[in-house]
Amino acid sequence: MSRVWLRAAALALVVIGVVVGLTVYFSSESTPPCLVPGAATWRPPSDGGTHRYEVVFPERAACFFAIDEQQRLVGALRLGPAKGISTAAPLQNDVALRTQRGVYTLDLRTGRLRFGGLAPFPSDTLTATDDSHRVLYVTQRGLLGFRVLDSHSGRQLYVVHYRGFTWNRRFGPDPPSHGLSLAPDRPELWVLDSPNSVVHLFDVSGLPNDPPRQIADIRLSKPISGDENPCSRACGRIGALLHSADGRFVYVGDSGDVIDTRTRETVANLEALHNSRVQLEVDWVNGKAVFPRRS
Fold first, then answer.
1. Which of 71, 169, 213, 250 is the most exposed place for a label (fewest CB within 10 A)?
2. Domain match, 68 and 197 both
C-alpha cells in the first residue's frame, strides 16, 4: 500500500513540475519584449535622414523609442541568449551587451546577436567628467549625495548632500545615488536620489571655486523600489540617469520617467525603462548608427 502512495506522490510531483514549467514557458513567451503589446520588430530607417532613438534593454530585449516622436515605441527585438543584461556600450557600429552568460554584440542593422565583444562591467561607483570646470563628480555606496574632485590632482573639493532629504541605510537602494548626468548644453548636474525617488538638479557654474548649488528637486511619477520584472539577475531597482544628446530630455532608469529639462516635468513613462536601468542613445544618420559622445 505504501508503494502505491509513493508512486502516486511521485507522479503528482511530476505533473506539478510539468504544469509549472509550461506556465513559466508560456507566460514568458507571451510577454511582449518591451512590455507593450503590438510593438513592431525593429527595422532601421531606410531613408537618408537623421533619426534619434533611446534604446532600453530590459530582460532579453531591446526597445527603440523615437526621441523626436514623443518617445513612441517604434521597434523591439527579442534577444533570447542575452539573459541578465547589466551594461550596454557602443562597439563601432554595434552595441555590446554584458550579460549573465558573457558579452554579446548586437548588430543594429540586422538585429542579429552574436557572442563576443567588449563591454564595461557594472559598478556601484559612478563618475562624470566636467572638462569645462576641471572637476570630476563621483557617487558611491553609502553616500546620499556626491563628491567633487579636482580632475588634475584628484583632490576632493566638496562633498555635496541633498538639502532637505535623508536616508535610512536599512531601507532603500544602496548605492543611494546611482544616477549621475551632466547636461550637455548648460552647467547643470542631475543626480538621482533613489531612496527618496527624487532627481536633484545642481547649478555647477561656480566650480571649482564655489560648490554646486541645489536649484530644483523633481519627484518621480513611479518610485524606485522593488524588483525589475521580468528579471533574472541583480533585479533590485537602484536607478540610472541619461541625458539625450541635445540636453532636452533626461531618462530615469528603474522608474521609467522621461523628464523635459526645460519644464522640469515628466512627459512620459516608459514601461521598459521602469524594468531596466540599461540604456543608451543611438542616432541613425545616413544609414549608419552614430553614438553621441558623453563626458
1. 169
2. no
Q: pLDDT (tens digit, 9 = 90+) per residue, 57-72?
A: 999 999 999 999 999 9
Question: Which residues neighbour 277 within 8 Å (Cβ) at sequence distance 6 or greater?
Answer: 178, 237, 238, 239, 240, 253, 254
pLDDT recorded at residue 3 = 46
132 and 113 housed in the same domain: no
Name the DSSP letter for residue 140: -
pTM: 0.88
Question: In this structure, what CATH number is given to the domain that contains residue 151?
Answer: 2.130.10.10
- State which residues of the chain have pLDDT below 50: 1-6, 8-28
How confident is the model at residue 22, as a pLDDT? Answer: 33
Tell which residue, 63, 74, 72, has the closest CA to residue 32. Answer: 63
Distance CA 94, CA 89 (A): 9
Strands 288-290 and 72-78: unpaired
| Domain housing 241 | 126-276
